[in-house]
Amino acid sequence: MEKQKFDELVKKIEEQRKAGKFDLSTDEDLSIAVMNLISLEEHFFFTAEKTGKSDYFDLLSEVREMRKELLAKLAPNHEGETWCISKHLLATSLRLMEGGTKLQSAGKKEESKAMFDKSYKLYSLFWALRLNLVDLKNLKKEDPDKPWGVEDIVSKLVNCCEE
Questions:
Q1: Tell me: the pLDDT tens digits for 34-57?
Q2: Which residues have CB under 8 Å from 97's CB, separation 6+?
Q3: N vs C: which end of the chain shows fewer Cβ within 10 Å?
C-alpha cells in the first residue's frame, strides 16, 4: 500500500472519529485487549507443550473464548474471512510492535522504526477494514516488487477461519 493511500485511510478514520461515528478510545482499548488475549493463547500453548501440563490447554480455551467474545464486538458484521483477517492483523501488529520494542532496547533504532511502521500500517489496515473504509475486492497491488500489500496479507490468511 503506497504512503498516499495509507495516509488517506488514516485521514478517513480521523474524520469518522471526529464526526462521532465511533468511540475510538473504547474500541482502541478493546483492540489492544484482543491483541493481548491472542498473545496469551500463544503463551498457554507453548507453556503446555514445554511443561507437558495439559491444564494450560484448559486456560488457553478459556482465554480463547474470551477473545472470541471481544473480537465479535470489534467485527460484528464480518463477511468472508474478515473475522480471521481482523484477528491476524491485530496479532501481527502486536508482534511487530513487540519486535520493534526489543530492537529499540538493543539500540537498533532504524530497524525498530521499520518494525513500528509496519505494525502501525497493519493496525491502521485493521481499522480501515473495521470501519469499512476499504473495499478489499477492488484493491490491486500496484507494485509487485513491494514487500507487502493488501493482497499479500489476505492471501496469507486463507483457510484459517474455523473458530
A1: 999 999 999 999 999 999 999 999
A2: 115, 116, 119
A3: C
